[in-house]
Amino acid sequence: xxxxxxxxxxxxxxxxxxxxxxxxxxxxxxxxxxxxxxxxxxxxxxxxxxxxxxxxxxxxxxxxxxxxxxxxxxxxxxxxxxxxxxxxxxxxxxxxxxxxxxxxxxxxxxxxxxxxxxxxxxxxxxxxxxxxxxxxxxxxxxxxxxxxxxxxxxxxxxxxxxxxxxxxxxxxxxxxxxxxxxxxxxxxxxxxxx
Length: 194
Fold this sequence. Notes:
This protein is α/β, with parallel strands linked by helices. It has helices at about 20-35, 70-80, 115-125, 145-150, 155-180, 180-185; strands at about 1-5, 40, 45-50, 55-60, 90-95, 105, 130-135.
């Protein structure tokens, strides 16, 4: 089983914000690419299960709010008996340290200030799980970080973001088939689209 988790905050208030880019990428996986699987409420989130290229895949969107994502992820990891360090878990999240649209796969490591990743690491007892970081850039001074991550992308960035979410969706499917090392080699050196 491959467990893919898209991080974000639930509710219309947060739809389309920078912090919800994990929801956007994971949502693109659920609909056309995995054959419109049935989405249901499970593990304190929305869950879809499907098969892709012979692999069982579950896509989870935690509804616990970003900073408490670990609760939902832990429930799913335990249920599916997924080995987070064994290339069976991929978490998709925003990253302020990357330019808009830049993608970076990592096989583990620090949360880098991303509180959803930090909570998952705490709940799993390890930071050794794969993640796909999606660049959202840094806030312009004097804007506060919280206001920035909860803001929407500018019209100028929108085209880059749309292209990058398409690339990220393809990249996640490559992870399902080929794993994290393949994806790090293929996608980490790429410049953002646009």
